[in-house]
Amino acid sequence: MANYLILEKGFPYEPGYRIGLTHEQIVLGRTGHTVKPDISFENKFISRKHCLLQINVNEIVLTDLHSKHGTLVNKQPVTPGTPIVLKHNDRIILAQGAVVLRYISPENPDDATLELSNTNVHSALSFPDTGKLKLDIQKRQCFVNNNRIALSPKEWQLLLLLYSKFNQTVHYDQIRTTVWPERILTANEIPNVGLEEINLLIYRLRQKLGSQGSLIKNSRGVGCLLEL
């Protein structure tokens, strides 16, 4: 059995995903125009190339790639550029908790909901094919009736969040945390975003989706959902 990571937190993936470490090197980060890490997270606090995992015969080595907001292992800061050997059950924390993963060694298997045989996590996300609304996660593209729709970064983040939880109501606080991570936090550690601003973004997204905009339903006072 190969080494793997269990995702505890990190949009757009669900907690519990198992990420197989089957390649010699794996970069964790955030996709940009010219940067495509092996495992990409949708959070602006994650650097384009945040950290590197090197998979050797007898050990897994983690190196922080001089990320802006840092990497922790078991709450201990990792010195940028200095490799450290991971041990079974180590918790890897990126950007002060924006992403949390747990390392599992083959001698100590653990339960998880899904195993990925390669480092392209996007390919393992299971979304419905409605024939009318499609998302290309890797290319960050949206298609309605096979026509590509241009979305702003925040419109894309909102749609991806709703799409990943289709037919489930997404609470306004989760929308705030996912779409506006750069905002100042309230006393409840939720980004300071008013309901009017959220509703305006939902309205713009519905307009962009045209005939499929009606798939986005409001749950008054709670949140919204994508009905597929």
Automatic annotation (TrEMBL):
Pfam families in the record, alphabetically? FHA, Trans_reg_C
Q: What domain of life does the UniProt record list for this protein's source?
A: Bacteria
Q: Taking every annotated instance into account, which residue ranges of this chain make up the domain OmpR/PhoB-type?
A: 122-228
By what name is this protein known?
A: Transcriptional regulatory protein, C terminal
All copies of domain FHA, residue ranges: 26-78
- Annotation: DNA-binding region: 122-228
Question: Is the keyword Transcription regulation in the record?
Answer: no
Q: What are the GO MF terms of this UniProt record?
A: DNA binding
